Amino acid sequence: MNSSTQFDAVIVGAGFGGMGAAIALNRLGFDNLLILEREDDLGGTWHVNRYPGLAVDIASVTYSYSFEPNPYWSRLFAPGTELKRYAEHVADKYDLRRHMRFGSAVTGAQWDDDAHVWTVSIDGADPVTARYLLTATGFLSQPKMPDIDGIDTFAGQVLHTTAWDDTIDLRGTRAAIIGTGATAVQLIPEVAREAAALTVYQRTPIWVVPKLDAPIPNIVQRLFARKPATQRFARAVSDGLLEGIMVSAVLHYRQAKLLNKGAAAASRLFLRTQVRDRSLRRKLTPDYDFGCKRPTFSNSYYRTFTRDNVDLETTSIVRVEADGIVTADGRKTEVDTLILATGFSLWDANFPAIEIIGREGRNLGKWWRDNRFQAYEGVAVPQFPNFLTLASPYSYSGLSYFTTIESQMAHMSRLFGAMHSRGADVFEVTEDANTRFLDRMTDNLDDSVFYRGSCSTSRSYYFNQHGEAALLRPTSTANAFKEAAAFPLTDYRITSAEATERVSS
Ligand code: NAP
């Protein structure tokens, strides 16, 4: 490494993705790491989101690192606070805090092809240099504010779910929630219990299936702690169910259409058991196929709409006024608190979350938009040497983020292991390997509900501005792990910076 380069690697983001990358790099012998985090603490999503009802909706035995099982989850689907504590535990156990710098918003990064280093710019601080750059900025990290007329004139409190005000007291107030995504599904039952009146503004209904949740008794927690194989077994069952039902029904729609239709039928049947009113049921029933948009799990969501103090509004909003919300039919609903469960901007603001300039001035965001969103194995991009983008097109594997993280850790291990054995320190994926991967993902998507099913009315963030479903990796998770551990090393150009510098001088 050039003696003036400050760090072996800079990792952007101290959530589970960034911490996984740091653990992988530590295992590979890199200790001079800097993890930059714009928030004031670690945990990513689980630090930022604190809204009432926050919980995982993938079973906790699956939604955690396989190499760091937590035997003490209190429920099958742990509440958000436990995820935040788990993140802290991982940071402590793997001694990661020493690498972290909080309140450090990265504004951009540029590759210097002569010095073979990345220069990373930080808001309000001096830039830093590193041999390797890894962005672990998450998928759902740039909140989306709805572009609704007059929203700035609203006199009461406006809250996005990612900026929850812990001091807010909704008791006796008139609340409105805009949005019916997975966040709203968790939040709506909680707000309905507190507020005097709640109006939920739904633009697109969501598929909801029952959440098979329950407390995990102490005796089982102790069993998991004493005999880890029992928890590994529980994880295998949970992974298998997720893969078999969800991933197959969505990604292998062509082959598993019946499974997909069965999941939709189960959701419809569930709705029937929860809501008697036909017209309410009709409003809550999606008109697109199961899986076009991320389905969600809740035992209380549907039933909440049968409460006297809750209204489901499906007429579109035309404007917000100081004291309420006006819909297209001219009706105004008076509101004290406006809650925005309007989700995240992925394709405009998040890919990439910061400006990244590679070789020959290639701007990653511009290149993705002018060409197609793409990343070899969901981690690498041609003309971006020594850069791994961990929140990328085609990187999200399975429905648990931990599958994605761990397959990326395996990829890093193979790649850096090969460099180490060759005495090399510069890598760049080849154009050819990248194109082959993109072509294969595009072909595979042809089997998915996204292209085979009926998704046009789903308004799903799985689709980008070009109409491509370029977020999920359309393969089995087993395939993602297999390729991460065995991709052809010839897919990368692996060189030594020192040798290159000697040749060119
Ligand atoms: P989301 O799924 O993108 O939902 C946003 C909602 O806001 C949608 O119903 C959307 O309607 C609505 N909306 C946005 N702009 C609007 C506008 N201008 N007017 C009216 N409605 C508008 O976001 P999310 O609910 O925050 O969930 C995002 C993802 O986070 C989930 O899919 C899931 O992956 C993850 N999540 C996970 C958990 C967990 O437990 N693990 C919990 C919560 C969230 P349209 O659909 O019509 O656009």
TrEMBL record:
Q: Does the keyword Disulfide bond apply?
A: no
Any idea what this protein is called? NAD(P)/FAD-dependent oxidoreductase
Top-level division of the source organism's lineage: Bacteria
Query: Which species is listed as the source?
Result: Rhodococcus artemisiae
Gene Ontology molecular functions: oxidoreductase activity
Q: Which Enzyme Commission number(s) are listed? A: 1.14.13.-
Question: Which top-level enzyme class is recorded in the Swiss-Prot or TrEMBL entry?
Answer: oxidoreductase
Short name of one Pfam family: Pyr_redox_3
Keywords assigned by UniProt, alphabetized? Oxidoreductase
Q: State whether keyword Iron-sulfur applies.
A: no
Q: Which InterPro entries match?
A: FAD-bind_Monooxygenase_sf, FAD/NAD-bd_sf
